[in-house]
Amino acid sequence: MIEAQPHSSSTPRVAAFDRWIRGRFIDLNTELEDLYAARDNRLHVDGVGDHVKATLLEEGRELIVPLIEEGNTDEGFDRAFELLGNVGYYMAACRRHEITEPSRERTSPLVEASTLALHLGASLGTAPRFVTSHMETYNRAVNGVYRTFTHAPAEKLFLDHNTRGAFAYMRAADALGRIHPMGVSHPASLDLLLHARDALRDAYEMNVELGKALDVDDFFFRVRPYYKPYRVGSQEYRGANAGDFAAFNQIDMLLGLCSPTDVSYSQVVVEKFPYLTPDEQRRLHESFRHPNVLDALLAQSEHADEDWYQRHAAAFLEVCEAHGRAAEHHHEDLVVPFIKRPSENIPHDQLAGITASGPPLDVLLRALRGLVDRRLATDRHDIPTRHADIAALRGLVT
Ligand code: HEM
After folding, report:
1. 331 Cα to the center of ligand 1, angstroms
2. How far apart are CA 372 and CA 34, in angstroms?
3. pLDDT of residue 393
4. Ligand 1: which atom is nearest the Cα of residue 169?
5. What is the pLDDT of residue 1?
6. How many Å apart are CA 199 and CA 208, to the nearest integer?
7. Residue 355's pLDDT is what?
8. What is the distance in A from the centroid of ligand 1 to the CA of 334?
9. Could you list the mean pLDDT of each consecutive 10-residue stretch along the chain, which spans 398 residues?
């Protein structure tokens, strides 16, 4: 086991909890996962490994109590956000092992952890639970090893790919966000469109690699259950999902494939805000205000014969294709084989909490397919897509 170095601005109590999360906590979770895996029905975790669960619960609690007294002593966003992640990991593990279960309780029995998490969330401006950034872009590595729930290779594989994929999406969003102040006809806008296209191709490649390397059962039974919804105090917060970054929606709206005035779409996006870091929240707010590239190109169609128009419009269409292809792959080659199919073998009453957000799986899948079709600009009449506009633009490119 590695000896974790505390964050540079840590107090001894924060460092002690961080050491536990990065060591003993992972060992205890892994021990429990091995016990579940040895059973005929891996979904039945109730009554299995009770002594290990009691140890996890109590050791975590003992480290959290002194942190409540200490409070958020304002030693910077990174330190407080990392601590919220650590409390969140503990609460999520208790949920996974059914030490807590939101449908059974009206308020979380983890009183001390809830107190600390609520204080931290309120001071940071985020939901008081662990969120995707805790596992990915804010997951500080110590000697090459970042925080995980278990020692399962599938967990590391999943996070490595998600993190790198998220950065590829962020590169694309950053490039697209720089176009509107200069205008799409600016010579540098072509570079930006090509950067965005290449970044989206990288994201796609990363997801293809993940889909091939990840074992379905390991993901479904050992990784995913840690991302379920759980209560903090009396309120239940939805789980963590790999899409909790501004970049995906920035890209959707900056390209013009999804519209901030499409009610079902903006509902999906607005729901995300509390699960983003304040910095990501700001980016997402901005993307609701910015004009989109598709409208800008169509509004200048009188210049379609110009060399710039041909090259920029062709590059724009390639960006849209790259975005649509990655979205389609996410749905057909990640969501379907890793969530939908394994869920089909599970009795109906045990399906609750299978996904991050909680709606019944078929409802969620329909909503996700709607997002894919917007990104592909599919010809659909029940939801708004840019099918006709993309076809019109294609018609202008010779
Ligand atoms: C095994 C791998 C993966 C599986 C099984 C998976 C599954 C899912 C599921 C079930 C949802 C819906 C969440 C909910 O509301 O409950 C979702 C959402 C999302 N995921 Fe993934 N995901 C995977 C990997 C990734 C990766 C690597 C990325 C990108 C780097 C990603 C990006 C997204 C986005 C952007 C959303 C939000 C919905 C949208 O805007 O399309 N996912 N994913």
Report:
1. 8
2. 37
3. 98
4. 30
5. 44
6. 14
7. 61
8. 8
9. 56 94 98 96 92 98 92 75 97 97 95 96 95 96 97 98 97 97 98 98 98 96 95 96 94 97 94 96 94 97 98 98 98 95 80 66 91 98 97 97
Closest CA to 334 of 191, 162, 76, 104: 162
> The dihedral of CA 357, 363, 364, 368: what is its sign?
negative
pTM given for the model: 0.94
Q: Is 243 in the pocket of ligand 1 (CB under 6 A)?
A: yes
Separation of CA 356 and ligand 1 centre (Å): 9
pLDDT score of 74? 64
- Ligand 1 within 6 A of CB of 371: yes
The domains found in the chain, sorted by start residue, are: 12-129 (1.20.58.600), 153-396 (1.20.58.480)
Instruction: List the structure tokens of 87.
Output: 């409390």
Provide CB contacts within 8 A for 391, sequence distance 6+.
none
